[in-house]
Amino acid sequence: MIENKFPGKDITDEDLKNKFPLAAKKNTNHKSIITINGCEIGGDKLAIFAGPNMVESEKLIIETAINVKKSGAHFLRGGAFKPLTFPYRSLKYNETREQGLKWLKKAKEETGIGIVTEIMEEKYLDLVCETADILQIGSRNMQNFPFLTACAKTNKPILLKRHYGASLRDWLGAAEYILYEGNNNLILCERGVSVPHTHRATSRFLLDLQVIPAAQEVTHLPIISDPSHATFWRNWVRSMSLASVASGADGIMLEVHPDPPNSAVDPLQPIDFQEFENLMQEMEIISKHIYKKSIF
Ligand code: PEP
Ligand code: MN
């Protein structure tokens, strides 16, 4: 039997050496700092990713880019290609796909903000790479190994969201597939896990705050937290964002929309520009106080 030096955890010394040697820390101070579009992730700053769930229109994405940048966000998030849970589409709910990518590009041209957007199919890699500074691999694709390899080979920075049923060990295994291709610009994103009681009166997912210090212990990769997708409920986004900062995350991803109740997707989830601005100020206080890291 293999001895587990970390009681209560599923990651063994053997895993660190042989299953994900590239993702594993080489010593306690080993930490990767990734620079994208002039912004450091994993260094002395807290990185902020903000924007709507879906790139709904040109006006929406440009207005959001201007506002989140003004409040200090480093990256604009937004899906032109979206993994929607059900196959039915209304006009409002429709993905904007190639058109949405063009609007994201315009938002970057007008504001200079870096773009993170989801890639769902290998055939769109070239197209998405033209616009994205960071390729987002969504939860649902976390263990699509040939897809991870194809994304890694583009050498674009990658944001790998954790599947809501994946252990830290599974997640680091997926990360290893990307690092194995020589792509070291990799960021991990916790976005909530699925546990039986979350399907009842609380929320759709449970933000796994413990995975932040757990990951910081074993991997050198930057790790960020997405409280919006985890809580699914804007009233809890503020407290869970502050808790994520306190937990030692290297960055926070937030859904921000000019008119949250009218968001085309998941309208209970996004916060508005003023709430985002207030939250940025509060995250700055926590981050500076505990970790001496600033957002700005
Ligand atoms: C998203 O960030 O838009 C998204 C779909 O997230 P996840 O893959 O975490 O569900
Ligand atoms: Mn979403």
Map the helices and strands.
Blueprint (H helix, E strand, L loop, with lengths): L12 H7 L14 E3 L2 E3 L5 E5 L6 H13 L4 E3 L19 H15 L2 E5 L6 H7 L2 E4 L7 H9 L4 E4 L6 H13 L5 E5 L20 H8 L4 E3 L1 H5 L5 H11 L3 E5 L17 H19 L5
Parallel strand pairs: 3-4, 3-10, 4-5, 5-6, 6-7, 7-8, 8-9, 9-10
Antiparallel strand pairs: 1-2
Helix pairs in contact: 2-3, 3-4, 5-6, 9-10
Bound molecules: phosphoenolpyruvate and manganese (II) ion.
Structural class: alpha/beta
Rg, Å, rounded: 18 Å
User: Which ligands appear in the coordinates?
Assistant: phosphoenolpyruvate, manganese (II) ion
The biggest sheet amounts to: 8 strands, parallel, barrel
Shape assignment = globular
Q: Could you name the ranges where pLDDT drops below 50 across 5 or more consecutive residues?
A: none
Order of helices and strands: HEEEHEHEHEHEHEHEHHEH
Number of E strands: 10
Our measurement of the CA-to-CA distance between the termini, rounded to an integer number of angstroms, reads: 49 Å
Q: Indicate the multimeric state.
A: single chain
Strand order of the largest sheet: 3-4-5-6-7-8-9-10
Strand-residue fraction? 5-15%
Q: What's the total helix number?
A: 10
Helix content: 25-40%
Mean pLDDT: 95
